[in-house]
Design a protein that fits this description.
heterodimer; A: 127 residues; mainly alpha; 33% helix; B: 279 residues; Cytochrome Bc1 Complex, Chain D, domain 2; two-stranded antiparallel sheet; globular
Chain lengths: 127, 279
Amino acid sequence: MLSKHDLSSRPRWSALAAGVAIFSLAAASNFANGSPQADIAEGKLLSMERSKGNCLACHMIEDGELPGDLGPPLLAMKVRFPDRKALVEQVCDATVRNSNSRMPPFCRHGILSEEEVELIVDYLYTL
Amino acid sequence: MNKTAVMLTSILATSLAQPAAIAGPEEDRAAFVRYFQSRFPDVEFDEFANGIYAIDADSRRQWLEIEEFPPYEFAIEQGESEWQQTFANGRTFADCFAQPSDSIRAMYPRYEEARGEVVTLEIALNDCRAANDEEPYAYDAEELIDLTAFLAFEARGKAVAVRIPADQPGAIAAYEDGKRFYYSKRGQLNFACSDCHITSVGQRVRADRLGPSLGHTTHFPVYRSKLGGMIGLQQRFLGCIRDVRAKPFELQSTEYRNLEFFLAYMSNGLMINGPGARK
């Protein structure tokens, strides 16, 4: 018989894993900051992967399916975050700007490394 | 949500998180209810006993269809025969309780001064078995969950009525402990229960719409279609805590019992409507 413990513990977060592979590369014309294409592809993967950024859980992102809406849509990033450092800080540790943020402190809690955050920001600047 | 609403939400959430020193349980509860009523002005107070279905029209429609052939019916039947079983010494569960079977669910959770701790329905049922020389159930055992399904069904229409007598400092301490747990960030993802079930109520984490905490305890145990079985309230706590990648506590730990005590108190005045059916 199925243990009741098993029943309750299936992580809902795992439902968020869907479709990492289906995303295509961002349009080449959007490469505003001149990063190599491979970095942007990796940044996109890190943003989508549930064990990494899982940004879609809480943010609308262009072609991402079933986005959450806890945070604002991630678009026009270059215009809204002209200061790269500010964007890196928001992604690395959102609690610096808002101590009560519902966005996980990715770097401080060891979910993303600082290098991974740089790659994600490369990708964000294509949005 | 517009900007004003966002601000209101965070102000209210903050004031709930950091209550003034004089605020007692009853002031907390009033603020809790006011918050959800201001977020969902079209939802009647009684409706909050229906969880996510109170605020989400789509899933409500599916739920009403499911309720035509309730998937928890079998659990109620099993629970009833469990309730009527005769222990080896010839006694039954009913002999342990002074109240009739429709008046037991609403007595728990409660703080028992003599024991210095919160006693839940599950604990009371297991105590009854122990007092009659029967093996206690595991807290995730089907028999125990079915018993709570039967007792919840019997109690339908009775109000949640958790008491915190002012002259019982232990009861207040247990309540405060549960409240602190509820508002504390935890886990790798750094979420408090309140982040999802107060501040973000009605919003989506991916496809999952977040339901209000007001009414969280009224309808347990629930049949979860996604899992194909019944779970108790504390198994749901455990699931949510795992989801934020925090270390879960044992079922019926002091932490979970105090959390249940706090949450059930917040739902005082709503009708018991368990068992329930959920995704």
